[in-house]
Amino acid sequence: MTIQIGTAGSEGKSFTGLKSVFKIKMTRKGTPNDAVIQVYNVNADTVALAQDPDAVIRVLAGYDVPQLLFAGNPTKGGVKLERKGPDRVLTIEAQDGLRAYQDARISISFSTETTLAQVYAAVAEQLGLPEGTIRVDSTFRFTQGGVFSGYARDVLDRIAASTSSGWFIRDG
Questions:
Q1: Nearest partner of 108 among 76, 155, 154, judged by Cα
Q2: Residue 110: is it exposed, middle or buried by C-beta count within 10 angstroms (0-12/13-18/19+)?
Q3: Which residues lie across from 58 on neighbouring strands?
Q4: pLDDT tens digit string along 45-74?
Q5: Cβ contacts of residue 162 below 8 Å, gap of 6+?
Q6: 3: Cβ–Cβ under 8 A, 6 or more apart, which residues?
Q7: Left if phi > 0, otherwise alpha if psi is -120 to 50, otherwise beta: which for 100?
Q8: Helix runs in the chain, H state only
Q9: pLDDT of 11-30, one tens digit each?
């Protein structure tokens, strides 16, 4: 297992030899997935890195080619260092895509008939995210175009409700 801690655009730190424990709870709802990650006997620099407001935590597991299991941001007050016997344990409570979920805003408008796939593609582009897997009714159209503006989570909730679909965050 590998735990990576860093900030976007930086090299960060990667831990493979330290004892670590994690619990990840994933849902298919429009709210971030939760994780609790514990890494044993890290140094003060690592604790400070995890406490950075722009910190990103990644959990990977596997033998030959480790697979990404979780990528997210620590919650407010979710980074703690404590002693357990002779060990110093760094506990990180994190949520998948938390910063984007809390802060991302979008503003998109279409003046002509638009498909649901075009709307999702425009939302993903404006957020700077890959589209991921999109399975939508290819016949659904916004016949009068539309304006989609506000927090990304609220816009996605509105689109999902109007089309009887859903959305979720996975690995940032």
A1: 155
A2: middle
A3: 4, 71
A4: 999 999 998 899 999 988 888 898 988 889
A5: none
A6: 14, 15, 18, 20, 22, 37, 39, 57, 58, 59, 60
A7: alpha
A8: 44-51, 98-103, 116-127, 152-163
A9: 788 888 889 999 999 877 77
User: pLDDT class for 155, splitting at 50, 70, 90?
Assistant: confident
Token pair of 31 as six digits = 């709210």
The tokens describing 170, both together, are 């996975």
Burial class (CB in 10 A: 0-12, 13-18, 19+), 53: exposed
The Cα–Cα gap between 148 and 128 comes to 16
Degrees, nearest 5: CA angle 138-141-145 = 145
Scored b (16 or more CB within 10 A) or e, 67-82 reads eebbbbbbeeebbeee
Q: Mean pLDDT throughout 132-153?
A: 78
Query: Tell me, what's the pLDDT at 85?
Result: 92
* Closest to 41 measured CA to CA, from 87, 72, 103: 87
Average the pLDDT over 120-144 and give the result.
74
Region 98-125 average pLDDT: 81
Give the separation between CA 128 and CA 125, rounded to whole angstroms: 5
**CA distance linking residue 33 with residue 72, whole number of Å:** 9
